[in-house]
Amino acid sequence: MATTLRPRPAALNLTPSAETRIADLMARAPEGAIGVKLSTPRRGCSGLAYSVDYVTEAKAFDEKIDTPGGTLFVDGGSILYLIGSTMDWVEDDFTAGFVFQNPNAKGACGCGESFTV
């Protein structure tokens, strides 16, 4: 009997506006940057926060997501908190930033800075 492999679902879904923002970031990236990286460091009143930074090297367990404008890496230690999430870029008159729809989040702080799983 042959083994059939199913395509692996995306760990993180990106909206077109998030992909455009990654392209904008990479167009202005510092020398040596190979992409941007999403991680979930421990901070805030709920425990975890979303952080996006430039990276100069890929780590062994990072998830690599190629977008039309550049590469998004997802921290290997954060991936379990983010599986099935959607990353969007939202701008309005007063704020601009990445917004996450995370089905794994069980709660968030009142200011929206952090979440808990």
From TrEMBL:
Upper classification of the organism: Bacteria, Pseudomonadati, Pseudomonadota, Alphaproteobacteria, Sphingomonadales
GO CC field: cytoplasm
The protein's name: Iron-sulfur cluster assembly accessory protein
GO function terms (MF aspect): 2 iron, 2 sulfur cluster binding
PANTHER family hit by this protein: IRON-SULFUR CLUSTER ASSEMBLY 1 HOMOLOG, MITOCHONDRIAL (PTHR10072:SF41), IRON-SULFUR CLUSTER ASSEMBLY PROTEIN (PTHR10072)
PROSITE patterns given in the database record: HESB
Organism: Sphingomonas zeae
GO biological process terms on file: iron-sulfur cluster assembly
Family from the record: Belongs to the HesB/IscA family.
